[in-house]
Amino acid sequence: MSYISNISLEPDAQAQVIDADSFGARYVSLRGFDRFLDQIGQTDVGMIVWPGGALAENNDERYGIQYEDLYSGDYDRPGLSDLMALARDEHLSLSIILPTARYEDDLEGLRVDAADFFTDLFSGTFGELPDKLVMEMGNEFYANFHGIDEAEKAEHYAAVVNTYAEVLHTLEGEFDVHPENVEYSIQLGRTEDGNAALIEAMSEDALTLPDMLSTHRFTHSAEGADRAVDVIEAAHEMWSDTAEELGGEGPGLYLSAYNAASLSRVEAAEDFLSTHDHDGLTVDDLDLDGRSNLEFEQHYQDMLATRAMGMEHAETLLQTFSDYHAIGAEAAGVYGWDLTHSGASSYTDVNGEAHIFVGGQIQDMMAESLNGTRILNWHDANDHTNDDAATAYAFDSADKLVLFLGAPKTLDGPQTVQIDLRGLGDTAGVWGQSLHAEVPEDWHTLFNVPVVEGVDQTPESLKYAEGIREQIDLTQDGNVMSFDFTRPDEMVRLVFARSDAGIAEIAEWADGAMLSVDPDAFDDTELAADDALIDTSGLMTHETLPDDDLFSDDAHFAEDEDEEEDAMSADDGGGDDGGDMGGLLAALVMGLLAAAL
């Protein structure tokens, strides 16, 4: 088998240099802060996003800019000053959500609350500002504002954002409201009409205010990850053009919440009741805690089986990250840390031990290796509908080249993969590591999940699949480097150093020994071009990928609320306390990667 690349390997013109802000973790404030810190402390998270979107928009008893520290003193959770202190101490960026929906019919109240909040912020009441503070105005206005359609909701949201911008403008004589380490972000809609209405309704101050435009993406599967990209690209361009006409600068793009579309038991129960005739049964009748209704329990497992779980979850995160960074994302945050839903990145078990699931591990592998790179377009060729196909993601810079290569889902034994090193430009050495998923044998006990006799709970077990990272053996024979895929869905990361600086940087965090690349050993070995394992000669883009019948952006809107019910009404088990392209530019046609059974 072989892999022939017949495409330019230049980064997309919109792709930004990736930095730590692309590896954010959202603290939703539903469980103890110590739990969250224990979990992210095992990773290379670069930004904290706070709080949960539904909490910020819909729970004014707990969170709001009218409170002394943004979080009500009636609840034992950290406030803004605590989050800022953490960000300063750990040199993390901090992104916070400012409420908007509650002010839809109270713009005068917003003027008072916003003036007080910004005065406190810029006068130092919450402490010294962190290295970067992002203030995101609102969360999913299309789900939280009133209106007959998204366009009308956008107009109402715009009125609130305009008021925030007006307040900031009035404070400019007293404070520097837009220092280098403070950025503002305004949320885009999901439709062309909604975004057009949003931009039309914005004041000039609001149009020129944001440093970034926020968007969210939750997809059932990797093949649908880029389904909304065209709408976001068009809105981003429209906003940028309008801001520049007004003398401002075009904003960047912020993927402020993304993940695989998760599934709560409440959502599954509502689906069960809507699709089955049960003569007036209610959610309470389904015994969600005791799990005595076997018909519903089977329905729940069947629904989970259609979601991206285990290594499919990891690949969905990687594909979504790639699709949005290709169109210019410069920051991103995963909604999935310390959650009970499918698609969780982490959780704490009944013994108080923090677990990093496979989704959290793939984010960590990206975070430690991708800083300073720009994304190449290999991800556009991935065909997630073909279980026999492998997948590829590539990120490049002057000092390193990072490849993530995914094994076919149908792999039933070791498969040797060969890479023609001549096509990669100058490389001095390479490190290799694999990621696979393993479910703890005692997952029922660890995560307080009842055993349901007569129902196969395998789909649910994948919620708790931990990400296992292992070093892999790499060899060079002439101009060919080889390694083995050993498991279906396995993800292999190869990090090539291009320079002495690259070697030094990678050696600080990479495990295992580097394979030194010897260019003097190259012997012009040609790799076969037939039966490609990964073939990008007919590059597929987001315009030509097959439709994702399961795609729905509505599935996650109630997640924060469902998660809140889980956290506040039951014992959750763990407790509630606490680039430069180098030689690639010339490599338009090359034999790159071959696999031999």
What layout of secondary structure does this protein have?
Elements: E1 3-5, E2 24-26, H1 33-40, E3 47-50, H2 53-58, H3 80-90, E4 93-98, H4 107-123, E5 133-137, H5 141-144, H6 150-171, E6 182-187, H7 192-201, H8 204-207, E7 212-219, H9 229-245, E8 252-260, H10 265-275, H11 294-305, H12 311-325, E9 329-334, E10 346-348, E11 354-356, H13 358-369, E12 374-375, E13 391-396, E14 400-406, E15 415-420, E16 429-438, H14 443-446, H15 458-461, E17 466-471, E18 475-477, E19 480-485, E20 491-497, H16 500-507, E21 515-516, H17 559-569, E22 590-596
Parallel strand pairs: 2-3, 2-9, 3-4, 4-5, 5-6, 6-7, 7-8, 8-9
Antiparallel strand pairs: 1-22, 10-11, 12-13, 13-14, 14-20, 15-19, 15-22, 16-17, 16-20, 16-21, 18-19
